[in-house]
Design a protein that fits this description.
Elements: E1 7-15, E2 18-27, E3 32-38, H1 46-54, E4 60-70, H2 74-78, H3 82-98, H4 107-111, H5 124-171, H6 174-194, H7 199-212, H8 216-235, H9 240-260, H10 264-284
Parallel strand pairs: 3-4
Antiparallel strand pairs: 1-2, 2-4
């Protein structure tokens, strides 16, 4: 299966202590690059998340957001911790004995004190496994979205491959006749230019030029490279770099075809091939 480097997935989990949310998104990159945005409560899960993602992703700039919103129950909101209030009172007494000039605690200071409404700490031992389980589900959706996008990109590339094959197939039978006509024209120009030269000299010059304008090898290599593009797409997996290399090879053959051209049909075909190659290259830049 072919994967795009562009993808997105997000999931939310209602946990006993609050709401956990994980979001994954990615854009193109030459390498695998992670950017984690995780709250301190779950920071310990980052190495495991990185290992989990690296096992299934090979390229792309991946951004992972993990957020947790703690839930305060109604009972906690209404009932103050008598133990915590007494501790605050004792602390204030001790501090004011040591520093008489210290300002007393205000009501707002007391209400903001951690743990005043009971035990509001998060059970990290139970939250971390839940985070990893949710991350696996998000990763599955994320890979599925990249696969869907990759399938569309592969279809576009295969359309361009088919169009290139049609161009090669249409121009190939025209080349011998066009080159023969050009050679006759060249022969006449040589006769007019060198006049007294014998026929062997003229035939030799024409033969040398005929070898220089022969494009059979370029057409054969074009077909071979197109076969390889189809094979790589069919094999699937991380294929972006391989396909990008094949685009360079195809472009090289198209350039050579154009430089050897002595007839309009071949020159136009070379230009059309280069346009299709560039269109494929743009799509391949998005593949993993």
């Amino acid at each position: 299966m072919i994967y795009s480097m562009t993808g997105y997935a997000a999931k939310t989990l209602d946990h006993d202590h609050g709401v956990l949310n994980i979001e994954l998104k990615s854009v193109n990159s030459r390498y695998l690059d992670f950017q984690f945005r995780i709250g301190e409560d779950l920071r310990a899960a980052e190495p495991t998340l990185r290992e989990m993602f690296s096992a299934r992703l090979t390229r792309g700039k991946i951004e992972c957001r993990v957020s947790f919103s703690a839930r305060a129950t109604r009972q906690q909101a209404q009932q103050l911790s008598a133990e915590m209030l007494q501790q605050l009172k004792d602390y204030e007494t001790q501090i004011r004995e040591a520093f008489p000039q210290a300002s007393p605690l205000s009501v707002s200071d007391v209400l903001r004190w951690p743990g005043l409404f009971g035990d509001d700490t998060i059970d990290l031992e139970s939250l971390t496994p839940a985070c990893l389980k949710l991350a696996k589900e998000v990763l599955d959706d994320f890979c599925a979205s990249r696969a869907r996008e990759g399938e569309k990109l592969a279809a576009v590339i295969l359309e361009r491959v088919a169009a290139m094959r049609n161009l090669v197939r249409d121009v190939e039978p025209k080349i011998p006749l066009a080159q023969a006509a050009f050679q006759d024209k060249l022969k006449q120009r040589l006769v007019d230019a060198i006049g007294s030269a014998d026929d062997d000299r003229i035939r030799q010059e024409v033969a040398v030029f005929a070898v220089r304008i022969d494009v059979a090898e370029e057409l054969a290599r074009l077909s071979t490279h197109l076969d390889e593009v189809e094979r790589v797409l069919k094999a699937g997996g991380a294929s972006g770099k391989r396909l990008d290399f094949l685009m360079q090879e195809l472009n090289r053959e198209a350039n050579t075809l154009g430089s050897k051209s002595v007839v309009t049909e071949v020159s136009q075909t070379a230009m059309d091939l280069k346009l299709l190659i560039e269109q494929m290259r743009e799509q391949i830049q998005n593949l993993e």
